[in-house]
Amino acid sequence: MGIHSYAVDEIGHLKENNYLNCDKSLRSWLFTLDHKRIALLYLASLLVFFFLGGLSAIFMRLHLYNVEKPLLSPDAYNVAFTFHGVLMIFLFIVPGIPAVLGNFLLPLMIGAKDVAFPRLNLLSLWIYWLGALVGIIGIINPVWILKYLQGSAISQWIPLDTGWTFYAPYSTSTGAGEGWGTIMMTLAAFILGFSSILTGLNFMVTIHRLRAPGLTWFKLPVFVWGIYATSAIQVLATPVVGITLLLLIVEKVFGIGIFDPAKGGDPILYQHFFWFYSHPVVYIMVLPAFGIIGEIIPVFSRKPIFGYTAVVFSSVGIAVVSFIVWAHHMYTSGMSPFSQAVFSATTFAVAVPTAIKVFNWVSTMYKGSIRFDPAMLYAMAFVFLFMIAGTSGIFLAVLGLDIFYHDTYFVVAHFHYTIQGGAVIGLIAGLHFWFPKITGRMYNPGVAKLAFWLIFLGFNVTFIPQFILGVQGMPRRYAFYLPEFEPMHRLSTFGTFFNAFGYTLAILNLAWSWAFSKVKAGANPYDALGLEWQAPSPPPHDNFVVPPNVEIGRYDYGVPVNLVAQKEVVRS
Amino acid sequence: MASEAKTVEAGAPPVYHHIDPVNAYHASKLGMWLFLATEILLFSVLFSAFAVYNWMYFEYFHDAATKLDWRLGAINTAVLLFSSYTAAVAVYKAQISDNRGVVINFGISFLCGLIFLVIKYIEYSAKYEHGYFPGTSYWNSTEFSAHYKNYFGLYYTMTGLHALHVVIGMGVLLWVIGLARKNRFSSRYYTPVELGALYWHLVDLIWIFLFPLLYLID
Amino acid sequence: MAEELGHIIHPRTFLKVLVILLVLTLLTVLLSPRVSGEMVDFGKINIVIALSIAIIKASLVLSYFMHLKFEGLWILVYFITPVILLLIMILGLFIDTPVRIDPIQPPF
Questions:
Q1: Which of A48, A435, B157, C102 has the fewest C-beta atoms under 10 angstroms from its C-beta?
Q2: 8 A C-beta contact, residue B206 and residue B165
Q3: Chain B residues close to A107, C-beta within 8 Å
Q4: What string of pLDDT tens digits covers the 572 residues of chain A?
Q5: Residue B23: Cβ-neighbour burial (10 angstroms; 0-12, 13-18, 19+)
């Protein structure tokens, strides 16, 4: 590439020839090798599925508002919660933060020009789109369309009702989802798995080999450590679910008797293999969010992160321990009492590194100079919500309690606190925090704060009643309930709308501000430390205009000369 | 928006905008080993399932395994080991800038893969004739299902998935052979040869474990 | 620019490794009761013998053909970790399936 002179203005804003407008053709976007563009393409796709998954949730909660006059048939309800799970998990939150913020920020944070394998990165994106397409075909099932055209009633349409967990032997029976729905969905998940694996592989090699000279491992941002741990899990765990789903398809088509008890198979074996991946996957969802919170809090407390080494080791520790706890999803499945006890013990262990992180975030804020930027509000909410998530997890780790709580709304509330209160809030926080870097503009903070409060209050009103329902014994995935559960269900549905409206407002605010805001953002609107803030906003294709200064410690807010040095980089 | 320039001379490494050639070699190798790790985990599930069912249904598995011909399995093992040898030699040839050596050795590995698949075909068709094959009426009969279906279900899945990897590996070898015939490689650039060989070695590694577990033990 | 990219192993070494591998294959065949009959049947130990030989063969392929002996520490970690996970997987399955209260049954 030739030498470009970038017209960076005095605050570090790059108006011409940044990564967004250097080439505006559609082809340059769809065939881009630029990690920043790939991140945005992922973001657009993810938001579509977040919206669709949210829509299925709204249908569920509307139905659950009044089961006397049910909105959905029981079969339709099963379809709704299956879609909600599959869309949200496989198509939104698992690619989630790594695909969007990981892709965008990783090279910037380590002073590189791109990821290690840009073409592989593009392939990951295309494979994601392929998987999404296969999934959509599974939902908008050709078999159903044919039947509908032949005059069958819509009530006969059951594309997929196995739940996102596809438990055998129901999923392998010929009845489930008219056959094709299950096969298409599991195939979609299999394809999406490849996208996840290749992204993880790419990020790991990037961190190993593309760090700027002088940037040693223990100078890396905690977000990068989080991405590294996440990528390791992606590479190691995803193949397991891939082959498991493949075995499911083989069982369905050839009846080999691996999971079907009627043929001598073991349905619990399916659960073992499924959860061997699906427990680590929840850490894929949340470890990057931990990293984001670890980046936001020091900036808005004007304090170094407390216990950097502990935060780093806890990220790695969580990734390691996440592989030995999987059967805590299976206590009531019929597995042996001995393994129940073993996995209960290991599950207690995984809480420790997470608790260390919470302690470190709170200690970072202590005696800091707190600024309540919208990103900081989300970060603080994360700490609060994840505390609830984690402690409710301890309840579930206790074998005796889980026998009662398993498959009740207690579990549903727990995982929504971890995934939504954790990973999704983390993603939204990150989108707000790095918005000026990504777009070169600033969003409307007032609207952002309003949206935050809608989300925070709406979320808690939705899910605290579900903890109560769970303790009272309300089972999950039930389309009908006894009258005693009605008040809490109604309260939960009430909260859902504030939650949904809050997310819509937050995302629209960001989109609107990007399109129409006249407030231009410079390279470092928060006076933060870190390599990505040394690049112009929005960055050029090659990320940096001058080689980044890696000597400035990323968390050294107590050292005034650092901020001066940081400013110098931008001005040069 | 291409990020790599065309090479200016035969054997020169490709030029990328984000990474220098030596780093690119090491990065590619690291990435390939990570990919091999995913393949190991993929087959781990199958080996684990086999281990569990072998333990629980010991007599049935012992009985069913006698239906396999260990001699064909042994020949296939030798064939793959030899093909691994030639693949390793091919990497050496690339390291000394001998493109013709790469073509010959990867060519031999490719042919060995073909022999492997032919022998597999012979095995499978023999099973088809005896009815031990999905789709035959015997496959769904109560006698077969009670004794052999679990075993053969796993057998076909494991060897079938392995054979698919052999086919993919052969495709990769063919692609590298194509590049070598254009004298693409030299001591300064032979990444595709090394990565292709690593993939092929993995195919051999998996068979090293499949062979005794399926054909030899009881 | 004479520095070599990766470690070079001469084909002579590969040939020696191949011969050892073929000998080990012969050994594992001969030690199988299905081939040599009762004489080599050690009961449950059979599988240990077969797997041990397989592991030695795999180690040779890994160390020499795949150059693992001469690679850096990270690649060794990247190879060992999935193997450890395989062991964890098998362990997790074996503390469950054989000792269930309600064991799995063959069909019919």
A1: C102
A2: yes
A3: 18
A4: 444 677 888 888 988 889 998 989 999 999 999 999 999 999 999 999 999 999 999 999 999 999 888 888 888 899 899 999 999 999 999 999 999 999 999 999 999 999 999 999 999 999 999 999 999 888 777 777 777 677 665 555 677 888 999 998 888 886 655 567 888 889 999 999 999 999 999 999 999 999 999 999 999 999 999 999 999 999 999 999 999 999 999 998 888 889 988 888 999 999 999 999 999 999 999 999 999 999 999 999 999 999 999 999 999 999 999 999 999 999 999 999 999 999 999 999 999 999 999 999 999 999 999 999 999 999 999 999 999 999 999 999 999 999 999 999 999 999 999 999 999 999 999 999 999 999 999 999 999 999 999 999 999 999 999 999 999 999 999 999 999 999 999 999 999 999 999 999 999 999 999 999 988 998 999 989 999 999 998 999 999 988 888 888 889 887 777 777 777 666 65
A5: middle
Using the Cβ of C7 and the Cβ atoms of chain A, whether some distance falls under 8 Å is answered with no
Rounded CA separation A335/C93 (Å): 10
Report residue B118 as tokens: 């032919």
Element (H, E) at B15: strand B15-16
DSSP code per residue over A142-165: HHHHHHHHTT--GGG--S--STTT
* Whether the Cβ atoms of residue A65 and residue A493 lie closer than 8 Å to each other: yes
Q: What are phi and psi of A157, to 5 degrees?
A: -80, 110
Q: Closest chain B residue to C74 measured between Cα atoms?
A: B30
Handedness of CA A166, A172, A175, A177 (dihedral sign): positive
Helices (H), chain C: 11-30, 33-36, 45-60, 73-94
Q: Which residue of B has its CA nearest to A113?
A: B18
* C-alpha closest to that of B199 among B48, B80, B33: B33
| Domains recognised in chain B with CATH numbers | 18-216 (1.20.120.80)
Question: Using a CB-CB distance cutoff of 8 angstroms, which residues of chain A are in contact with residue B48?
Answer: 273
- Test mutation, C85, C96, C104, chain A, max A CBs within 10 A: C96
Name the DSSP letter for residue C71. Answer: S
